[in-house]
Amino acid sequence: MKSTLAPGIRLITSFSRDSWYRGFILLLTFLFYTAYHLSRKPISIVKSMVVIRRKDQRILNVDMLNSLICILPTDQDNYQTLFGVLDNSFLVAYAIGMFFSGIFGERLPLRYYLSFGMLMSGLFTCLFGLGFYWNIHSLGYYAFIQVMNGLMQTTGWPAVVACVGNWFGKGKRGFIMGVWNSHTSVGNILGSLIAGVFVSSAWGMSFIVPGLIIASTGILCFFLLVEKPEDVNCSPPQHHVSDDSVFFVVFRVLQGVVEFSLCLLFAKLVSYTFLYWLPLYISNVAHFDPKQAGDMSTLFDVGGILGGIMAGLVSDYTGGRATTCCVMLVAAAPMLFLYNYIGQRSLGTTIGMLLVCGGLVNGPYALITTAVSADLGTHESLRGNSRALSTVTAIIDGTGSIGAALGPLLAGLISPTGWNNVFYMLITADVLACLFLSRLVYKEALGWCGRVPRVRG
């Protein structure tokens, strides 16, 4: 009697060797960038512990603030400015470093570059937490650690996008990268949950544990990452092809880079303001304790996962990356307004509004930093130079990171005047992000009308 293969083995053998390698690289880079974001999140959870609400009275947790910095505020609202210094020490260093990171990413082996970046990020994240156990009360120490960590974190995004771009073609890139880009939200969720476990007892562990995790993934990267399909005799993907002259295509690509970069600046301003200030906002307005506020803030990231996947699917089907981003940004503005005014009326409303706002805010951000960057970076005009993807990604995300630095800074300055003004600032940023995509949206609309050639994703 002829033997038959077990169902599991049949499933395994139904995929080609190339497919297994591509799936492995996708999973591996997903884990890498999850670890990057996981290690960024603790400070937003720790800062929510500084203010505790009891019977609607805000009480400054002086002991905890004193364990972070030596300069205690004379005004209870001043703690927001002090934490703004720490936030922006990281974010400004990240924004500046990102422009140089793409250059290094082009010239260095991605495996070494990523491994080094994750190990050093782990080191500086741990050093921040060790300040608790070493009884360090110096704002300068923590600010310096934040600056160094911001520089080390720039190694991640250009390198992982370049690696994924090397392995995947343009066909279903929006959907694939929409799913893959959920690592950002997954990292934020895990970072919130891990930090929340220790925040009320020994906040130092809120940083040390994520630091050890990202350092471990750096070791994993060194031993397992395969940078290009050709390195293991797999077939390279099919990238974008154009019949236009190189000069005009290069000019068009550069135009796209500038417009999407400026859009991302304002989109990331909104996203990172939520990343750094949402737990504190929930704690202040909804009167949750720090752990509950941190747990509740993860719903924004859950919505971001769904929004990123939806943006990728829609843009693949329609071929309209810019239009997809613009529609979601337009819808986000009124939803942010509603969340501020009715989002805390009940638990169900809070959950629903956080999910919707997370999807609409993070969907365009996810699409631009992944599929759009990869589309532009692997364009035929770049003559098949896959390393150029690292530079294009760094330019787009570096510009966006300027917004990431401005958002939390502005929130820290504006929040003492009332949270309403913070949300007006976020809504304005959403509108400006839409305006920078207007030319590209118009061009895509002409394509749908048949007046110019259109290529689906």
From TrEMBL:
GO terms for cellular component: endoplasmic reticulum membrane. This is Glucose-6-phosphate exchanger SLC37A2. It comes from the Eukaryota. The chain crosses the membrane at residues 20-38, 82-105, 112-134, 140-168, 180-199, 205-226, 246-278, 322-342, 348-368, 388-410, 422-442. It catalyses: D-glucose 6-phosphate(in) + phosphate(out) = D-glucose 6-phosphate(out) + phosphate(in). It is a multi-pass membrane protein. One of its GO terms (molecular function) is glucose 6-phosphate:phosphate antiporter activity. Belongs to the major facilitator superfamily. Organophosphate:Pi antiporter (OPA) (TC 2.A.1.4) family. It is found in: Endoplasmic reticulum membrane. SUPFAM superfamilies: MFS general substrate transporter. Keywords: Antiport, Endoplasmic reticulum, Glycoprotein, Membrane, Sugar transport, Transmembrane, Transmembrane helix, Transport. One of its GO terms (biological process) is phosphate ion transmembrane transport. Residues 28-445 form the Major facilitator superfamily (MFS) profile domain. CDD domains: MFS_SLC37A1_2. Gene3D superfamilies: MFS general substrate transporter like domains (1.20.1250.20). PROSITE patterns: MFS (PS50850). It holds the Pfam family MFS_1. The keyword Endoplasmic reticulum applies. InterPro entries: MFS, MFS_dom, MFS_trans_sf, SLC37A1_2, Sugar_P_transporter. Its main location: endoplasmic reticulum. The keyword Coiled coil does not apply.
